[in-house]
Amino acid sequence: MTVSVSLTVNGEAVSADVEPRTLLVQMLREELGLTGTHVGCDTSQCGACVVHVDGESVKACTLLAVQAEGADVKTIEGVADGDTLHPMQQAFHENHGLQCGFCTPGMIMSALDLVKNNPDPSEREIREWLEGNLCRCTGYHNIVKSIDAGARAMRG
Amino acid sequence: MYNFEYKKAGSVDEAAGIVGADDEAKLLAGGMTYIPTLKQRLAAPTTVVDLNGVGGMDGISADGNGVTVGAMARHAAVAASAEVAAAIPALADLASHIGDPQVRNRGTIGGSIANNDPAADYPAALVGLGATVQTNKRTIAADDFFTGLFETALGQDEIVTAVSFPRAGKAAYMKFPNPASRYAIVGVFVAQAADGVRVAVTGAGPCVFRVAEMEAALAANWSADSVAGLGISADGLNEDIHASAEYRAHLVTVMAKRAVAKAG
What we know:
The structure holds 2 protein chains of 2 kinds.
Chain A: E1 3-9, E2 12-18, H1 24-31, E3 50-53, E4 56-59, E5 72-74, H2 87-94, H3 104-117, H4 123-129, H5 140-155
Parallel strand pairs in A: 1-5
Antiparallel strand pairs in A: 1-2, 3-4, 3-5
Chain B: E1 5-8, H1 12-21, E2 26-28, H2 34-39, E3 47-50, E4 60-62, E5 66-70, H3 75-80, H4 82-87, H5 89-96, H6 101-106, H7 109-115, H8 122-129, E6 132-135, E7 139-141, H9 142-145, E8 146-148, E9 151-152, E10 160-166, E11 171-177, E12 184-193, E13 196-202, E14 209-210, H10 212-220, H11 224-228, H12 245-263
Parallel strand pairs in B: 1-3, 2-3
Antiparallel strand pairs in B: 4-5, 5-10, 6-7, 6-10, 8-9, 11-12, 12-13, 13-14
């Protein structure tokens, strides 16, 4: 038993036939081939799977694909402008904001949601916002620096 | 995850009809607890009835009596509501510390209380403020709503539509969160509530509960010192890899003191 799900992903209309139990992250990775969104803990805690649904950051491992019917989804693949990195991505690059890189897509998608509502976050606000994103390389310090620099670059 | 049929309800009546006709059908609100439950195969519903398509259930309003929060209001919306912050700041503060930003963007007050996870935050606010739960059938006092571990007074075809919180005097919530999930290992809500002082504890036991001895002490003298010497028995408290029953009992006093100090 499958259902057809149609949504917009990174500006493109897409659809797939999925089982109702299919998670959004499974549809993104396995049906659409968008493997930039990672599955870390699969228990809604680590934040490696964070994507934007209708402009808000959510954990794609804790949302059914059918719930995203008609939604506007943005993944890490939709952040850069062609070959030009988004200022937040560039900031992670320049500030050593990643070691193994597994948590990075979720960190960046989460950071972009923070900056959307709070263009000039303090270090404390950045650290508090990242409570739903775990980094097992213990790279938080440079991640915080990256988000601070990325927010500054986005303010212009 | 076991497979199931998915139905997106357009109204509360439609959703109630589906779950009323099938004991194995389940409602889905924010899904922040229920989808992980499904993933662990701890539940095997025939049909998942999604409430996210029901309009008009996410409103937040305040008047002279208090605050009414629609059942589908997200935690992030309650946390960011200027009306809630002005009327009952402790409620907005509690909502701002549930889970993490992504959980708060999806999780709902109706889903949280209907699920009644023993470590959820909202049950402490409802009992701590003496709130009233509105359903599609009746109104239920918070003291009567939470009946046990993952158990509530809700009938099979009964759906939470809103929660009304009366205004309070001084009030605050403090929790000792699990560092990964942010669930309360112990959370204590203290309030000079509309009907007297209330002390509501979540996380420590199978279900939210009040501490009469602390309430009486705070009614006589509202200060952190009033509860500093009062403890609760560890008998029957939760025990898991994160904390022993004795540790949770200890935290109840510590969090109660901190909550009173925070309330001012």
